[in-house]
Amino acid sequence: MEKEENKSWMQFFSTWFTYKAVVIISLYIAVFVINTLTSFRFNIAINAVFIVIAGLLIKDDLKTDFENIKSWKNYTGQIILFYILRSVFLVAVQFIILSLVSDMPEVSQNQTEVTETIGGLPLQMGIIIGIIAPITEELIYRYALIGKNRNGVILKAIVSTLIFAWMHVTGDIINILPYLIVGGLLAIIYVRNNNNLLYSMGLHLFINILSVIMILLM
Question: What share of the chain is helix, strand, coil (3-state, %, to 5)?
Answer without folding.
Answer: 85, 0, 15
